[in-house]
């Protein structure tokens, strides 16, 4: 058998090793090209990042240049008003004019980054000058920073005391309040008030800010009365107790002055109505004190009860000419819905606790008076 040599197959001597060298060379070439491609892509990414960073810095620098900002925290005090319906740009413009922020643009940029900026409430805010825009935005979105004095009018205050309370707890001048009280024609009083203000300044808590005037505050108080009167249907229900709405308000003021505890309001109302129906004088110390412009006494003297003021219900039958204070809603409700009963008398036997007892006969009443006098001797 004849053996064929490699040369017989067309392969040159050493040909196998030559092909391997060429393959290795091709692989190296491909690897170099791949590495170069990766390096090129990396360099391109770095260049793009550098461009983005440079561009961002340029934009930031441009934004700062076009919308300069104070570093904060600011100093001094300035009152800023945010008007109802005012736009963010309008707020920014006002802040710039007052030198709270350095530019409107800085405030608008800061506001665009805070979603709460769309909820800024109208009102007055005490801020600083030279504030950082972001700090100014953060301050305004917190409604707790609004400037507003809370003036609370307790139930049962007389008109003169309401005016002095408002003046002492706010910046509203007493002379302005007194001038309107003297001529309340500018206020939205109901027709049955006949131009009289006593009883129509409803006891509640009111906001008083730097824009509040005597007229606007008293109007708010009368409006509050109108709201409550509508809520309890005063005008229509007055007929149920055979009185006018004004007379019901007068009865409510007597209840407010005389009753020591809320639970007693309807029973005190019944005593008043029983005495009115029978023609018996009301004989209420609260009306004597009102006539004498006194307060704080738990009882009155014979000389005081002899005063001939039309408000003195010892001297005159029927209701006094007007309310003697501003009653709250509970007293008005009691005047409209008195309790059922035959009582003709009531005595607050313990002024410390407000404990009040009721009687139908004069003899029962005398026993209650003795109980009250015993309290007096111990105090």
How does this structure look, described?
With 379 residues, this protein is mainly α. The protein folds into 3 domains: 75-145, 2-Layer Sandwich (Dna Ligase, domain 1), CATH 3.30.1490.480; 149-231, no CATH class; 234-377, no CATH class. The chain has 14 helices and 6 strands. It has helices at residues 15-66, 88-97, 104-112, 133-140, 159-168, 174-182, 214-231, 234-237, 245-258, 265-278, 285-291, 302-305, 329-336, 362-377, and strands at 75-82, 123-129, 149-152, 205-208, 345-350, 355-359. The protein has a two-stranded antiparallel sheet. The protein is elongated. The termini are far apart.
Write the layout of secondary structure elements.
Elements: H1 15-66, E1 75-82, H2 88-97, H3 104-112, E2 123-129, H4 133-140, E3 149-152, H5 159-168, H6 174-182, E4 205-208, H7 214-231, H8 234-237, H9 245-258, H10 265-278, H11 285-291, H12 302-305, H13 329-336, E5 345-350, E6 355-359, H14 362-377
Antiparallel strand pairs: 1-2, 3-4, 5-6
Give the proportion of residues in helices: 40-55%
Our estimate of the beta-strand percent is: 5-15%
Biggest beta sheet attributes: 2 strands, antiparallel
DSSP helical segment count: 14
N-to-C CA distance = 149 Å
Number of E-type strands: 6
């Amino acid at each position: 058998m004849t053996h064929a040599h490699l040369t017989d197959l067309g392969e040159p001597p050493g040909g196998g090793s030559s092909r391997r060298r060429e393959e290795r060379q091709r692989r190296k070439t491909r690897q170099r090209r791949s590495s170069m491609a990766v390096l090129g892509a990396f360099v391109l990414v770095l260049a793009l990042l550098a461009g983005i960073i440079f561009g961002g810095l340029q934009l930031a620098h441009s934004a700062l240049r076009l919308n300069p900002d104070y570093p904060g925290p600011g100093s001094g005090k300035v009152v800023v008003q945010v008007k109802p319906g005012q736009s963010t740009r309008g707020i920014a413009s006002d802040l710039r004019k007052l030198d709270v922020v350095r530019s409107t643009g800085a405030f608008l940029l800061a506001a665009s980054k805070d979603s709460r900026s769309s909820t800024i409430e109208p009102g007055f805010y005490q801020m600083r000058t030279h504030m950082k825009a972001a700090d100014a935005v953060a301050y305004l979105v917190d409604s707790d920073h609004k400037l507003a004095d809370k003036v609370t009018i307790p139930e049962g205050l007389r008109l003169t005391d309401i005016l002095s309370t408002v003046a002492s707890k706010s910046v509203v001048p007493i002379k302005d309040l007194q001038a309107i009280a003297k001529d309340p024609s500018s206020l939205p009083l109901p027709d049955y008030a006949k131009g009289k203000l006593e009883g129509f300044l409803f006891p509640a808590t009111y906001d008083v800010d730097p824009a509040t005037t005597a007229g606007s505050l008293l109007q708010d108080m009368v409006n509050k009365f109108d709201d409550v009167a509508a809520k309890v249907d005063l005008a229509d229900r007055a007929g149920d107790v055979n009185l006018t709405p004004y007379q019901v308000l007068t009865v409510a003021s007597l209840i407010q002055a005389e009753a020591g505890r809320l639970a007693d309001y309807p029973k005190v109302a019944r005593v008043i109505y029983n005495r009115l129906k029978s023609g018996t004088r009301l004989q209420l110390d609260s009306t004597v004190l009102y006539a004498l412009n006194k307060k704080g006494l738990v009882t009155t003297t014979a000389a005081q009860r002899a005063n001939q003021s039309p408000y003195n219900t010892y001297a005159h039958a029927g209701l006094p000419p007007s309310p003697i204070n501003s009653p709250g809603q509970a007293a008005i409700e009691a005047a409209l819905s008195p309790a059922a009963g035959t009582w003709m008398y009531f005595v607050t036997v313990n002024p410390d606790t407000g404990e009040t007892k009721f009687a139908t006969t004069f003899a029962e009443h005398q026993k209650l008076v003795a109980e009250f006098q015993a309290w007096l001797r111990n105090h």
